[in-house]
Design brief:
Length: about 400
């Protein structure tokens, strides 16, 4: 059989590796607009100069040189024909397969504000060309505006600080890292960046831009009338699954591709994994989805049941944080906080069941909390402080001395 995979990110590469392992005689065709494999999680390191493009490559096991793998590079898929399982770039047929995995990821969202979509010195940060464009423009830029104070925005800021740039970050939410952490944990990172000279405008929106008449933005205007001068703009306001090429294909989409428990789309033999399937963009999850989809493409029936992926890690200036599940309580939830000079812990309980936890400083034991939250296991009835609960509290012994799981 021949398997066509669109995309060479975490999901696509994981799928290719799995297929060639499970079905050594089958062939894999990779199609991508990218001409290099790279980790998007590391793009900020290219901006700072810490790594070059080769240093972002996460495939070092010879996979791309496999005799049964063909990689068609630099081709942007504009149309997918489900009936023949073929993909096209304009009128050119690029490739086809007996099965298809769509793993095209997501693209940066660019707000339709002023010249943000057209300016030569305005960039998203999602793909390798974005990072290269930022790095190039930064050589002559002194003042940089970053729109968005989530992980991507702060990654960009961290990299540009290493290049000695003057940074202003604008964020619609009242805190930085609003999706990842609560206000208390996020404030610790805001202070670390402010100590390095970064200026934040929180709970503010960009409403317009000013330009030099030659295609460059020279200032952004905020909703309170403030003008922030700049030589470059980096936009980190979110992403959207890359599914535009599926229009007219018959594949059911909503915000992303609709898939069943086997990651198969509405068209038989066509699967989706990663951001394009609407799941969390966490790297290990995308790899797992690619693996599960690959097994199913090979004829095995594997269910993807790990749809709980609300897990985030943050690390700036040596301060580690991890959040799992809900970071803000709902009405009626119990909130427990434990804090000292070096650590902050916040646990949200609903009926004695942990719904989410934030760990800042020492993040050991996060796997235990992920298990409890994912499996909705009650912990307030163990006769001890919830902070002292461990795996041992959920095991008992049978008459033959073997351990058994006790919920």
């Amino acid at each position: 059989m021949k398997h066509l995979i669109i995309g060479v990110g975490a999901a696509g590469i994981s799928a290719a590796r799995t297929i060639l392992k499970e079905k050594p005689e089958d062939s894999v065709v990779l199609v991508s607009q990218d001409e290099e494999v790279y980790s998007r999680c590391m793009l900020h390191k290219l901006i700072s100069g810490e790594r070059d493009a080769a240093g972002l490559n996460f495939v070092n096991d010879g996979l791309l040189e496999h005799k049964n793998l063909e990689w068609i590079k630099g081709k942007t898929v504009t149309r997918l024909e489900a009936a023949t399982k073929s993909v096209y770039a304009g009128d050119e047929k690029i490739a086809s397969g007996d099965t298809i995995l769509i793993a095209t990821g997501a693209n940066s969202v660019t707000p339709p504000i002023g010249e943000l979509r057209t300016a030569k010195n305005a960039f998203g940060l999602r793909h390798l060309p974005d990072a290269r464009g930022i790095a190039s423009c930064a050589k002559n830029a002194k003042e940089v505006v970053i729109i968005g104070a989530g992980l991507v925005g702060l990654d960009a800021a961290y990299a540009l600080l290493e290049l000695g740039k003057k940074l202003t970050i604008i964020e619609m939410a009242p805190t930085v890292l609003a999706i990842n952490l609560d206000a208390h944990a996020a404030a610790a990172y805001q202070k670390l960046f402010e100590d390095k000279g970064v200026v934040f405008h929180l709970a503010r929106k960009v409403v317009n831009t000013r330009g030099d008449g030659r295609g460059n933005i020279t200032a952004v205007e905020l909703d309170n009338g403030s003008l922030i001068p700049c030589d470059m703009v980096v936009m980190a306001v979110g992403v959207r699954p890359a599914i535009g090429f599926l229009e007219g294909s018959g594949i059911k989409t909503e915000r992303a591709i609709v898939v069943d428990d086997y990651l198969e789309s509405s068209e038989p033999g066509i699967y989706a994994a990663g951001d394009v399937a609407g799941f969390s963009g966490v790297w290990p999850n995308a790899q797992k989805q690619g693996e599960i989809a690959a097994y199913n493409m090979c004829g095995t029936k594997w269910i993807y049941d790990d749809r709980f992926a609300i897990k985030n890690t943050v690390n700036f200036f040596g301060l580690l944080s991890l959040s799992v599940g809900a970071i803000n309580p709902a009405d009626g939830d119990e909130v427990l906080v434990k804090e000292d000079r070096l650590n902050y812990r916040k646990l949200i309980l609903r009926g004695g069941v942990p719904m989410g936890i934030i760990l800042q400083g020492e993040i050991g034991g996060s796997g235990f909390w992920l298990h409890l939250i994912k499996n909705k296991m009650r912990i307030d009835n163990r006769g001890k402080s919830v902070w002292k609960v461990s795996y041992a509290d959920f095991y008992g012994t049978q008459q033959n001395g073997e351990y058994k799981w006790v919920v």
